[in-house]
Amino acid sequence: MLKDMIIAGVAKPDFIVNHRISIEDTPAAYREFSQRTDGYKKVIIIFEY
Description:
Strand content: 15-25%
Helix content: 25-40%
Shape: globular
Strand order of the largest sheet: 1-2
Order of helices and strands: HEHE
Number of helices: 2
Largest sheet: 2 strands, parallel
Structural class: alpha+beta
Number of domains: 1
Mean pLDDT: 84
Low-confidence stretches: none
Radius of gyration: 13 Å
C-alpha cells in the first residue's frame, strides 16, 4: 500500500507536492484548486496537534 511505503520512507511524494496549507486555509485553497488556478496541483493540509 502506498501509505505504508511513504511511512517506511520507500516512496517520497514531496517532489509532487507544490502547496502546503494549514487547515484554516483549506476553504480558500479549495476554491483555487477547483478553479484550476495555475500552480494548484497537489496540496497537503498540515494539521497541528
